[in-house]
Design a protein that fits this description.
Low-confidence stretches: none
Strand order of the largest sheet: 4-3-2-1-5
Oligomer: single chain
Strand content: 15-25%
Mean pLDDT: 84
Structural class: alpha+beta
Radius of gyration: 20 Å
Shape: elongated
């Protein structure tokens, strides 16, 4: 039945991602970078496997690849903001101007960094408990104020 097939496919995807997460975690202690790399590896693996299986059973994959290239170019133009945020996220994860738990002020929003994912920096506003999501493309091009331990009476 369709629901059990979908559950099986979902289970395969999550298992593959978990597998890559275990491998990547042995190379880096940074959880955010590990998730980013594991997801990329998992998606790449399944794309490659799908094309290999189609080619093995005799389906010509050249037209499929041509259509995919055109679709990715079109999506690239349509998803400019998402792609910008993605690459900004990679640079932020590599440069590391702040860490989880740091108290920062970005674009006028002040809070403790909860996480950095593929699209947003999540801040916990300590005055009202709200979560503020700031797109990484805005973070990358903005001044970031890192608050020191002295400002919090932690020294």
């Amino acid at each position: 039945s369709k629901p059990s097939l979908m559950r099986t496919i979902f289970s395969l995807f999550t298992s593959t991602e978990s597998f890559f997460m275990k491998i990547v975690s042995s190379f880096t202690s940074d959880f955010d970078i590990a998730i980013l790399i594991a997801k990329f590896c998992s998606y790449s693996f399944w794309a490659y496997m799908s094309l290999s299986i189609l080619g093995t059973i005799g389906i010509d994959t050249k037209p499929f690849l041509t259509v995919l290239n055109i679709a990715f170019i079109t999506l690239g133009f349509a998803a400019k903001d998402i792609i910008t945020s993605f690459f900004a996220g990679i640079f932020i994860l590599l440069i590391r101007p702040f860490q989880r738990g740091s108290v920062v002020c970005i674009q006028g929003y002040r809070g403790q960094v909860v996480s950095v994912d593929m699209r947003y920096v999540k801040l916990l506003d300590q005055t009202n408990g709200n979560i503020v999501l700031i797109p990484l493309s805005m973070v990358y091009g903005s001044p970031i104020v890192l608050e020191t331990a002295d400002q919090h009476g932690l020294s």
